[in-house]
């Protein structure tokens, strides 16, 4: 059996404490999500329900309302965090993010169109969202291949913002065409995990499991591509094939997240930024850290959305935007992008 190199062993040991710390933080946020929320059930009553001594009303709120919401928010954060890390590594651009490059907007536009046409089943919504994300991701890849554009982070983001604005405008036009669908689309595009049934999570699980499997396959070649395409070819990898697999993976992840919570922006920027700050440039370690950090960010934002305007709730998409905008400014002003 091949001996494990000392460098790799040290790197694994360094990663484990980070994963444990992030996992512990996630557990605390999960507990807060189950204990706190809008409604007459207090934290003490919710805790009693978790221990099996609560009233029937408190048990219903915790198990039927807050628990599904918690699971959906965690899955959304996992999907968007991993998708953002993959996009940033593939484009070699720290600003690449599904919400900024039109991937989420493409997914959202497709779902809004499906709602306008009368789609109601969760499975159909998930498939349509993934198709829209695939189209948006394909546009991102095409954009990065344009000479002089893909290598400039600011111009790439401007191109993505233009595409996002166009798709949002078309979505707004659809809302004017059908008042029946307008209310549902309006609630959906603001981003929310409130009131979502577990059925919609079950419908997205096969896609997420497939995406996680693909990530396992592309993680090592993607790390090699960070050394350059010639180096990756010399190591026996095929960059074109890897980009294709990443495109499919991102479409599966973003489509699933959009079907679950709507088109949330900045999550795919914030999560890899936090993970990379602790893990360094190795995409494999970044992806591992995104697993607990992504759910923690979205679930934490959801808890804030419940409490900041209680007894009402602030849209989740607004909270993620308020969190992500300062991170975007930090990255732009950090001076780590030579093209700026």
Task: Describe the protein's architecture and organization.
The chain is mostly helical and 340 residues long. It has a single domain (69-332), classed as ABC transporter involved in vitamin B12 uptake, BtuC. 76% of the residues lie in helices and 0% in strands. The chain has helices at 6-35, 43-50, 56-91, 103-116, 122-144, 153-177, 179-189, 198-225, 229-234, 239-261, 267-279, 283-307, 316-333. The termini are far apart.
In the predicted model, the low-confidence regions spanning at least 5 consecutive residues are 5-10
Order of helices and strands: HHHHHHHHHHHHH
- CATH third-tier fold name: ABC transporter involved in vitamin B12 uptake, BtuC
**Bulk shape:** globular
CATH architecture: Orthogonal Bundle
Q: What is the number of beta strands?
A: 0
By secondary-structure content and strand pairing, the structural class works out as: mainly alpha
How many domain modules?
Answer: 1
**CATH H-level superfamily:** ABC transporter involved in vitamin B12 uptake, BtuC
Strand content: under 5%
Main sheet characteristics:
none
Salient structural properties:
13 helices; ABC transporter involved in vitamin B12 uptake, BtuC; 340 residues; mainly alpha; globular
Quick overview:
It comes from Marinobacter daepoensis. This protein is an all-alpha fold and 340 residues long.
Topology (SSEs and partners):
Blueprint: H1 6-35, H2 43-50, H3 56-91, H4 103-116, H5 122-144, H6 153-177, H7 179-189, H8 198-225, H9 229-234, H10 239-261, H11 267-279, H12 283-307, H13 316-333
Helix pairs in contact: 1-3, 1-12, 2-3, 3-8, 3-10, 3-11, 3-12, 4-5, 4-6, 4-7, 4-10, 5-10, 6-7, 8-10, 11-12, 11-13, 12-13
